[in-house]
Fold this sequence. Notes:
With 781 residues, this protein is mainly beta.
Amino acid sequence: MSRQHHRRLQKIAALALASPGLSLYMGAASAAEERSAQIEEIIVTAQKRAEGSSKVPISLSVYDAETLDRIGARDFNDVVKVTPGIEFSDDRGAKKNITIRGIYSQAGSATSGIYIDDVPVQVRVGILNLVGVGTPRIFDLERVEILRGPQGTLFGASAQGGAVRFITAQPSLTDFSGYSRADISSTEGGELGYEAGVSLGGPIVENKAGYRVSAWYRRDGGYIDHDSFLPGGAVEKDANWSESTVVRGALTFAPTESLRITPSMFLQKVNINDSGFFDPSASNVDDTDFVNKNALLTPADDKFYLPSLKIEADLGPVSLTALTGYMRRENDYALDYTNVVASFFGLAAARSISEASPVPYSNHQDVYSQELRLQSSDPDARLKWTVGGFYSYLRQEVHQQIVSPALPAMTQELWGMTVPYAWGADMVNGDRSFDATNILRDRQLAGFAQFDYRVLDKLTLIAGTRVARQRSGYSYNAAGPVNGGTTARSGEQEETAMTPKFGINYQVNDSNLLYASAAKGNRMGGANTPLQPTPQCTAQLQEIGVTSTPSSYDSDELWSYEVGSKNRLFGNRLAIEGSAYYIDWKDIQQSIYVPDCLASFVANVGKAEVKGFDLLVNARLTESFHLGLNVGYTDAKVAETAGVPGTNIVYAYKGDQLDMFHSPWLFAASLEYAFGLGGYEAYLRVDDQYRPKNPGPFTSLDHPGTPNYSTLYQPNPSQNILNFRAGMMVNGMELSLYVNNALNDHPFLYDLAALGVGGSALGSTFTVRPRTVGMGMLYRW
């Protein structure tokens, strides 16, 4: 590398890291020369081999680096907003849930596979109130692939509804490249946000060794004021701010032309100062004045590091790939139970901050995975095949406490008794009414194979399967008065699962593909932790037909049937991709909430049917006008009424919606116009995402008497998010201005009505970020 080139890279890095006020947005040195009226093909690895996305017989949404910048994506939620068939519940805290084609339940194993460079990072949900997946922030990614429909044959049991793959930028052995971005923005009713990041890469020894390094920081300004209802409680303006830091490094060595070795390290840390929820009764939403009335701040820290090693060997007619990955995730967050215990047991409400009850959680997760696969190398061969083996081991330790320093005094005041006498157990370490640790271990050993055979020039048959031996075990220890004493229990569940896939493709011509497929999805079962053995808890378990907490639950499974087409028309100016599907889901792992236990257990309950379609349209109307339209419809409903045999207890009614929070419909449209301005290339872009309200009915809302019935939760209303962006290329650098949520829509999402104890809003409501105006720069070379 020349000294002049070094100085140029240093200037670019300094600009990105020293300019928190600006962000470089989608650029290229001469975008005007490269722009054409044709739609570019994106190369993907959705079938674990490189091929054009229009040739892959899977319902697929893919976003390359330029597209991610064009839509202003900074985290996974920004991608989901424009993608049909997928939902992402995110309270900007610890609880993040992914639903693909309606397949999700708040219990048991994950239903969506999440991968960073083919290393699985999904988490089991429903452990001691933990519901959350870790997703990387959007910086220096080569692309994001979202695969709809079961992907168990190639990606394993957790990819029951589909898979999300984050592919990072890789080292080059021949070319130097870089990417720099910075941004500043202001949220209405809130504070400033900003970011800066840079990545560099290129050969160390040409054709023998290369590197890629990146570093990025972002602060999202808060817009929810925290004003505790208790004297001396948390008071902070714009309290829900967050900080994200991502650092990544990768090296590629090529000792021979046929061998590549790539070790890499991915580190991410997200700090959230306070929950993104607010109390509607204390807020003036019309003036963008949101207020959280909880007694305490509820911060969340989520950090993980992911070292991995990828070895690729070209053995002539076949290729060998070995992937080794390890993820260490440390997720710590807090809830506010200041009035939960008091309300539940009829004690006096808290009167000062000294009586507050923070609930700290810690989730430490270690995932080791190893994959070894062989596959055919010739892309034009009549028979293309992939065979391999996979092993993973997950250890997840979750620790929960309820700190209740006022419980002894409150118990004495109300009942005239000491805690051990009234509750049957003493406090833990003097101030904890509950202290529990759950250690979970999952093991999987699997073999998989898929064969694509071209029986005729245009007709290909696909057959594949995965056979996995799955074992899950746990050990659970809990103590404290809320637990009714000391509990110690362990359990294990083991099974063998098979996930076949069959398909047929007809390649009409190079621009048009028709396909049909049938695939089985599976997620492993598990063991239940025991509920608190209090008298009222035991009594209510018996009322719903359960004598004690079930020790385990089995895997659930589904069959998905899909037909689709991928078409490129009018000289590759119009791309239309569509699919329709039907899913039959049985023995669903579901959470059965027992109010008098303040907890839930997992059981295999009922079946569901999911019907829907997705449509993606991408059109270059002219060289200057670019139109995008994504439409998705997912009708996920209970297929048969399910309950306890021999009783009148019903868990779910036929025809009810599986998910009360997510809309069956998504409409996402974009229009971009490119033009010349003063000798520079410029553009204007508008994006609109609309989701109507889910019409119901819902078992948990519309059928009193069911175990999960609760009037606290309300379904999400319709929402419409309109974004504008304008940019100009100046000497290879793109300057941009944008307005996100221009209509300042603020729907009440995941609405949990206040319990009304002492005026405290326990949970409350979430909304989208208010209108945000920003400016930025981006440079890519």
